Amino acid sequence: MSNSHEDESIWRLLFELVRILLGVGGSLLILVGPAVLMTLSPPWWGVIAVIGGAALTGLCSAMKWLRLADNLSVVTSSALLGLALSLGLALPNYWNVLAALVTFVGGLVLIGMWERKLGFVSRADRIAPQSHGSGPSAWGGQQPQTTPEGEPIRTFNMSEIAMGGPVYVSYLFPDGVLLQGIGTSALFSSDGRYFAATVPSRQQWGLIILDRQERRVYRCANDFFWELDEFTETDLRGRVSPLVDNRASSFNLAELLKTAQAVDLIPVADLWLEPDSMPDNLAEPHIEHIGPQTRHRIDGSLRLPDRLRNLEQPLEGLHHPIYQLSLDGRETDLLFHADSAVVWRADGKALCIVARRVNEETARYWTWQPDTGWHALTTPWVVSSRETSLNWDTPLALDNHHLRIEGYLAFEIPDRGRYGYSLNCIHSDFDIQTGHDARGRAQSAERKLTPLQLVTPLAREGADERERGLSDIESEPLLGNLRARLSWQRDNSDDLGGYRCRIGDWALPGLWLLDHRVSDCTRYLALIPFADHPASAAKVVVVDTLKRQCLDSPPMNVVNVLDFREGKLLVTRVAGRLKEDTASTPLQRFDLPAPAVGKAAGFCTYREGSKPYYQTVELAVEDTGMRLLPKWRTVRTPQAANADGDFVQPAPLGSDAAWFFGFETEYAESSWLRSGSGRLGGHLLTASGCALKNLAPSASWSPDARYLALTRMNADMPNTWEVLLLDVEQRTLRTWPYSPGNRPQFEQFDSARLEVRAFESDYEASDSTDQGRVAALKLKALLALPAIALVEQDGLWFMPGQEGDAALWRMLDRSPLACSS
């Protein structure tokens, strides 16, 4: 940790040194360049340069580009010196010296007068004779807490312009003036009329001055101050930057105000705001919603809090304005937001809106009908902590008996993507892996949330707010624009609900869980059967709405439905539990298998000392059922260094095969997809019995299938990537002593040489144009390297010291190798 801080400090010092050198070089160029150029030019060129520079200075000053105007003034002065020297060279002796002196001195006087007329002073005038002691820090903690009159100032919303950098805050003064995003180095003038503060920035700092009497704000394009030291009735003094030279500067207050951009504060309720800080969606004082056929009209009158100053965020009431609701001119005690959806019945005689009573905090769905008046609906859904998270928000449609509300089902995915020991609940559209390209790179697609509609009855006499199943759930549209309708029946002892399912006039037998997914072609609906404790879901069922049949999956302890596209259903199942003190490896993901299929109720709940192991499986939907797809693939092309997943790479003529599994990124625990990252930690088992660990994906067989070229990624070593050669006949392993470069990928392996392609970066960006470079390694040179003999244990061959894992290797399901032969 200390080394990292030391490295950071060194880099920061180097950065500051380079910045200072560049600044000095630029200043010298501005000072010397024009003078040299004008000296070597005819005098009339110098006259044009001086007059043009003065004109540009005035133009920039008028445009409030004071920094540029200041630099142009320096360039003009330098050009004036060149003009004087040019005159001295052009005129005859005796007259030349006098003409040069008069031109230079007189020109400087005129430039100074021009600068003062424009409202800014020269650099020499800005430099204070001495530093006036350190004022409030730009890094916070010393900002004013009271006004000169002793009244408290509230500061909030503190943040940094960069990690560890100067901070900015919002100031709320006792009279309601709100200044946002300004620095903590701030001072009141000695007479108390003005308040000044720096404005931190990553690019160019600024200065803000508040005239408390006139309630006017002046924003100055002045980056000479990082920290303010003294503010008198006439002058403001401070320093440029304590990180560089801490140079002190002094500015006349009147001239600062003259050249600044001035704006008058605007009163809003009990606040005074700058025009630029007004919320973009500042509420209109009145809004209206007119129903179909203009039968009825909703009016809203803006209602602000009595005192915005008392809110934790004073502008909150303006960002989310509240309106008092009136219907057809009759005021109600309901409040609603400007963006609240208003749903009208088709005939325009009834409506629904999300609103709340004046004396209540929680908004509800309020309906109005001519015969019943205003009526608050019962909470549409009572959540079960064990069910898939159901969320709802916007009302969609209203009829005589029901209100339809838009909602969605969140989904839970294993924390490492294809497997994991916890389920992450996702409440947004999310990229999931959908396949691989020819080189094995992971392909992904957006997995959208499962949309649904809550069908809520308008009248439910005696309904309890805690009662489950007040609303029915409708899926997204299936074939024929039909929706599956789920109606709650009861909960089991695990608090999972059982639902009846109806699609049009087809009532499915049995009960089902809430979790469901409609296929991308809209023909199929995936459901999970409901079961009572101690039973659990033993399969997933796909409903074919075209043939009106249900297709069962192979038996499995299914947990949830993840995705359904291109005829493939992705689900999560629980396979076992892993003890807390046991490491998870590709050889052993769990040490306690799950109970028999259908008997796993409660197996996933929290238990001290172990955690459940989840894995995703893919099912192919066929005419008569579903088929479990293998988690591995067969490849004929050497894979990329960032290839993903398990695969089998057969040897030429089928004499051997290499099964690779367990690859992950270096960041598997936090970002498992990362298709551009190299993979590491892979395991290899050949049909001939060689078992190796800690490999990268790229591999290539020799034509005679005797040698298998391998790669390795060492994330914590300087030589990150390695090339290895496995002799499956002699059971030996050789390592090439030189780095092949980043992301090595085998291109060709013939009887004489091995071709390896390497790239500039160890990460493959999606828009990368790097084609890499190919190097050839001679097989003779590889075979001349020292060889490590593998050690035999129970019919398998291991690296020395790894034979202790033989029992775990023997327990592997070797069907991938059997299928490849």
Structure notes:
The chain crosses the membrane at residues 20-38, 44-65, 72-91, 97-114. Keywords: Membrane, Transmembrane, Transmembrane helix. Residues 129-151 are annotated as: Disordered. It is a single chain. With 821 residues, this protein is an alpha+beta fold. It has five domains: 2-124, no CATH class; 154-277; 286-376, no CATH class; 411-628, no CATH class; 632-820, no CATH class. Helix content is 17%, strand content 39%. The protein contains ten helices and 57 strands. A ten-stranded antiparallel β-sheet has the order 22-23-29-30-31-32-33-34-35-36, with no helix packed on it. Strands 42-43-44-47-48-49-50-51-55 form a nine-stranded mixed β-sheet. Strands 14, 15, 16, 17, 18, 19, 20 and 21 form an eight-stranded antiparallel β-sheet that branches. A hairpin with a 6-residue loop joins strand 18 and strand 19 (351-357). Helix 2 runs parallel beside helix 4 (95-118). The longest helix has 38 residues, at 2-39. It starts with a helix and ends with a helix.
